[in-house]
Write the structure tokens for this entry.
Amino acid sequence: MKVLVHACCGPCLLYPVKSLKSSGHEATGFFYNPNIHPYREYLLRLETLVETAGKEALPLIIRDNYDLELFLANVASEPDRRCDWCYLMRLQATASAAVSGNFDAFTTTLLYSRYQQHEKIAEIGKRVAEENGISFFYEDFRRGWQEGIKRSKELGLYRQQYCGCVYSEKERYLEKGEKR
């Protein structure tokens, strides 16, 4: 099966691609992440993903559209629900690219992270798949969490410390329970 893999970053791509390939699937990476802030962080994650794809001999499709304003316009009024819209935005773009590229299915490295809302991602992925007439490839990639971390360190990849959006960056650096 040809699977288009939405990738948030290089380190999170390692285990899902390994798992897909070891199961006999043909994987291609897909980068679309206009939620990442600041722009320098966006560029660093894109650069690291390109580096990772090269080291893993993985074809990569890049939708280099840094539309931070679109992200902010859709989440600013309800920042506590930002992840729902962010998952939806990126999975819709991935499904659309998968249909256009004649892939059999799409998936996302967001299913690898222990810090993301796993069930919500799977739910949105399945709904987007139905709406676009393509399969959502679900796998709980979290079981490879430690393996992916180890491999990314061995490769010397940049490893970010927050999901990417301005809200998560703020939460990362504020003390627990602190409000500003």
